[in-house]
Amino acid sequence: MPPGHGDLHPVPPVQSVGGDVVVQQEPAPLSRHLRVHEERGHTVLEFHGEIDIAAAVELLPVLDRVTGHPDARLVIDLSAVEFFDCSGLRLLYRARSRVLANNGRLLLVCTHPLTLRIIRATGLARLLPPLPSLDAALSRPEATSETL
To answer: Which residues contact 129 (CB under 8 A, 6 or more apart)?
Structure first.
């Protein structure tokens, strides 16, 4: 895993103190199922692997922290998800609700056929239309964001 993978903070730099090199400890990853980073004014939450009830328990505290900020601009990227069940759907519904309650913007990236099928069958695609790539989400004008 590359340095900083899965944490909310960039890897701290190496510092020189009085001629000695001091290396700061990298924080432990928040979850093996999530990488969070900033890109083009958005906080991107990349979900990874199998998003089931066990993963949801790990992801919920981070998701709540990120979605609770006023005027947050978030993208949830499911491109690296291999399995997605109703626990994942609950995370998406909760994230959407919290972001909208705080006057934010939430976009969804999803290309996996089975995950798309679940999102469409449950009606979530009407509330949070899946986009084909992170670039498509980050390039989307503010006026077209979902605000329902």
So the answer is: 108, 146
The encoded tokens of residue 91 equal: 């995370």
Q: Please give the angle made by the CA atoms of 8, 94 and 73, to the nearest 5 degrees.
A: 50
Q: How many CB atoms lie within 10 A of CB 68?
A: 13
Angle, alpha carbons 98-63-133 (nearest 5°) = 95
- The identity of residue 29, as a single letter, is P
Strand, coil or helix: what is 82?
strand
What are residue 137's phi and psi, to 5 degrees?
A: -70, -45
Structure token pair of residue 69 = 């900020």
Prediction pTM value: 0.76
pLDDT digits (tens, 9 = 90+) for 49-60: 999 999 999 999
